[in-house]
UniProtKB/TrEMBL annotation:
Domain of life: Bacteria
Record-given protein name: NAD(P)H-hydrate epimerase
Residues noted as binding (6S)-NADPHX in the record, renumbered to the chain: N56, N57, G58, A59, D60, G117, A118, G119, L120, N121, R122, P123, D146
PANTHER family in UniProt: ATP-DEPENDENT (S)-NAD(P)H-HYDRATE DEHYDRATASE, ATP-DEPENDENT (S)-NAD(P)H-HYDRATE DEHYDRATASE FAMILY MEMBER
Catalytic activity: (6R)-NADHX = (6S)-NADHX; (6R)-NADPHX = (6S)-NADPHX; (6S)-NADPHX + ADP = AMP + phosphate + NADPH + H(+); (6S)-NADHX + ADP = AMP + phosphate + NADH + H(+)
UniProtKB keywords: ATP-binding, Isomerase, Kinase, Lyase, Metal-binding, Multifunctional enzyme, NAD, NADP, Nucleotide-binding, Potassium, Transferase
Residues holding K(+): N57, D113, S149
Gene3D superfamilies, per database record: 3.40.1190.20, YjeF N-terminal domain
Cofactor, how bound (note): Binds 1 potassium ion per subunit.
GO terms, biological process: metabolite repair
Length: 465
C-alpha cells in the first residue's frame, strides 16, 4: 500500500533538512525520471516537445530536455519567461547544452506538459487555457510532469486540464491525482524517487492507495470445513427484487456458506439462494437497502435491523430514509455503501447540512474523511470512478474500477460481497477494502469491450481471481 499526501512540499523540505539534499538534487532526479519516461516513447526518428512554465515544474521539464538532447530530438517551448530562480538556472543550462527552443506549439510525437505543477495558485488565464486545449487536440503521446496542468492549490480543478497518457509525479503520490474528475486526465501514474528511496522520502499519512497485490481473497485453506464455517449472509429483499438477487449472487460467489433472501417468497431465484420470511438464527450479517422502494414497512425493518447485534451493510434507498438516524445512533457495527447522491442524504441526516452531489464530488476526500472521523464505528465506502473507503479518518483509495461497472446492479453485487467477507470473519474495514478491490478487479476479467458487461459478469469474474 502506498501513502498519498495532500501536499509534498513538507516531504521535500524534510529531504533537505534530514538527508542533506538540496532543491537542485531533487530536481535533477525529477528531470531524470521525466527524461526516462519520454525516452521510452521515442524512436530515433521521433521528436519530443517540452512545454515549460515559469516555475519549478517548468524547470523539471528543462532538466529532462537537457538530459535527452544530443541523443534524442527534443525542443523546448517556453510560452512565458521563467520566473523562479531554478527555472532561470535550468534554462541557462539547457541553452548551454544547445537544446533547441521553439517559438510556438510545433508538432511532435511526444508532448510534455511542464507548465504548472503544485504551484498553480489561481485559475488559468484564457491564453493558458487555449494553449492546453491546443495541446490536448494534438495527436501524440502526452506526459504530465508532476501533475496535469490545471489543478489549483493541489485541490480544485480549473475548467481546462491537460489530458495525459501518463503522469510522472515527483517524490510521492498526491491526493489531487485521485479526484474522480481527473480520472480521464492523469493517465498512468508513476512516482519518480527524488534522490531517496520512496520509503525514506515518505512519512506516515492517513491516505493510502490500494494495490491489487494486497487483495486478500477468502480462499479456503482448511479442508476440514462445512458450509457453516463460511457464515450466513441475510439479505433484505425489497419490491425491486432483482437488486437483492444480485446482492445474494455477489455474496454467494464471494464465499459465503449460506445466503438467505428475507421477505416474500419470489419465484425466479437462483436455486442456491434460500428464501425466508424471518431472520435465520445463525445469520452472521444483514445486508439491506437495495431494491427497497419507499414507502416500506419501517416497523418490520427497524425490528430486523436493530433488535440484534449483527453487523449491517446498508446501501441504496435506506441511505435516503430517516431510519438511518436510528442506525447511526445504535452504534451497531455498520458499513455504508452510498454513491454520491445517497451520501448527500446521509450527510444531511447526520450533519444537518445540505450538500449537493456536485459539492461532494468536488470535495470527496474532505467529506469522506470528516464523516469517518465523526462516526468512528462506521466504515464508509463512497462509490465513484475512484472508490474511497473511509474509516476513523483514514482513506483507502481504489482506482481499479472501470466504466464497465457503470451499470445498474453493480453496487448491489458489491454490497453482497462485503456481507460475504464479514460473514467469513473479516473486520468491517477489511471486508469493505477487499470486496471493493475484488469487485473492481473482477470487472476487468470479463471485459472484451466496455459496454456489454452485466452485474452477473462481476460474479463470473470472481471465479477467475
Ligand atoms: N525541491 C523542489 O522544489 C522540487 C520541485 N519540483 C517541481 O516543482 C513544481 C512546483 O514548482 P513551483 O512551486 O515553482 O510551481 P509551478 O511551477 O507549478 O508554478 C508556480 C509559478 O506559477 C505562477 N502561477 C500560479 N498560478 C498561475 C496562473 N494561474 N497563471 C500564471 N501563473 C501562475 C506562480 O506565481 C509561480 O511563479 C512541482 O510541481 C514539481 O514539478 C520537483 O522538481 C521536485 C523538487
Ligand atoms: N466509471 C466508473 N469507474 C469505476 N467504477 C465505477 C464507475 N461507475 C460506476 N462504478 C462502480 O460501480 C458501482 C455502481 O454502484 P451503484 O451506483 O450503487 O449501482 P446500483 O445501485 O445500480 O447497483 C460502484 O461500485 C461504483 O464505484
Ligand atoms: K504539469
Amino acid at each position: 500500500m502506498h501513502y498519498i499526501y495532500e501536499e509534498t512540499q513538507t516531504l521535500d523540505e524534510r529531504a533537505y533538512t534530514t538527508f542533506g539534499l538540496n532543491p537542485e538534487i531533487l530536481m535533477e532526479h525529477a528531470g531524470s525520471a521525466l527524461a526516462k519516461a519520454v525516452k521510452k516513447k521515442l524512436t530515433c526518428q521521433q521528436k519530443a516537445l517540452f512545454v515549460c512554465g515559469v516555475g519549478n515544474n517548468g524547470a523539471d521539464g528543462m532538466v529532462a530536455a537537457r538530459l535527452l538532447h544530443g541523443a534524442n530530438n527534443v525542443s523546448l517551448y517556453l510560452p512565458f519567461p521563467p520566473k523562479s530562480s531554478l527555472a532561470k538556472l535550468q534554462l541557462k543550462r539547457a541553452m548551454q547544452a544547445g537544446v533547441p527552443i521553439v517559438e510556438n506549439l510545433i508538432d511532435a510525437d511526444v508532448y510534455v506538459d511542464a507548465l504548472f505543477g503544485a504551484g498553480l495558485n489561481r485559475p488559468l488565464d484564457g491564453f493558458t487555457c487555449n494553449l492546453i486545449d491546443a495541446l490536448n487536440a494534438k495527436e501524440g503521446y502526452k506526459i504530465a510532469c508532476d501533475m496535469p496542468s490545471g489543478i489549483v492549490n493541489d485541490l480544485s480543478l480549473s475548467s481546462t486540464i491537460f489530458n495525459a497518457h501518463e503522469t510522472i509525479t515527483m517524490g510521492a503520490l498526491k491526493l489531487c491525482l485521485f479526484h474522480d474528475a481527473l480520472k480521464d486526465s492523469v493517465g498512468k501514474i508513476k512516482v519518480a524517487p527524488l534522490g531517496l528511496s520512496r520509503n525514506l522520502y515518505a512519512l506516515p499519512s492517513p491516505f493510502y492507495l490500494l494495490q491489487k497485490n494486497e487483495l486478500k481473497l477468502p480462499l479456503r485453506t482448511k479442508k476440514n470445513c462445512n458450509k457453516g464455517t463460511f457464515g450466513h449472509v441475510a439479505i433484505v429483499q425489497g419490491n425491486k427484487e432483482g437488486a437483492a438477487l444480485l446482492a445474494g449472487m455477489g455474496a454467494f460467489h464471494f464465499g459465503a456458506g449460506l445466503v438467505t433472501l428475507l421477505g416474500e417468497r419470489k419465484r425466479k431465484t437462483p436455486p442456491y439462494l434460500i428464501q425466508a420470511s424471518t431472520l435465520p438464527k445463525k445469520s452472521s450479517v444483514i445486508v439491506a437497502g437495495m431494491g427497497l422502494e419507499m414507502p416500506f414497512d419501517t416497523v418490520w425493518l427497524r425490528h430486523l435491523l436493530l433488535e440484534n447485534t449483527l453487523p449491517l451493510v446498508i446501501d441504496a434507498s435506506l441511505c435516503h430514509h430517516e431510519l438511518m438516524l436510528e442506525l447511526l445512533a445504535s452504534k451497531k457495527p455498520l458499513v455504508l455503501t452510498p454513491h454520491p447522491k445517497e451520501f448527500s442524504s446521509i450527510w444531511h441526516f447526520t450533519c444537518n447540512e445540505k450538500v449537493s452531489v456536485e459539492q461532494i464530488q468536488a470535495n470527496r476526500f474532505f467529506y469522506a474523511k470528516t464523516f469517518s472521523k465523526r462516526f468512528p464505528h462506521i466504515t464508509l465506502l463512497l462509490k465513484g470512478a475512484n472508490t474511497i473507503i473511509a474509516h476513523q479518518g483514514e482513506l483507502y483509495i481504489n482506482t481499479y474500477g472501470t466504466p464497465a461497472l457503470a451499470k445498474g446492479g453493480s453496487g448491489d453485487v458489491l454490497a453482497g460481497m462485503i456481507g460475504a467477507l464479514i460473514a467469513q470473519g473479516y473486520s468491517l474495514k477489511e471486508a469493505t477494502i477487499h470486496a471493493s478491490l475484488a469487485h473492481a478487479l473482477a470487472s476487468k476479467k470479463l471485459t472484451c469491450n466496455t459496454f456489454a458487461f452485466t452485474p452477473i459478469d462481476i460474479c463470473k469474474g470472481l471465479k477467475c481471481l
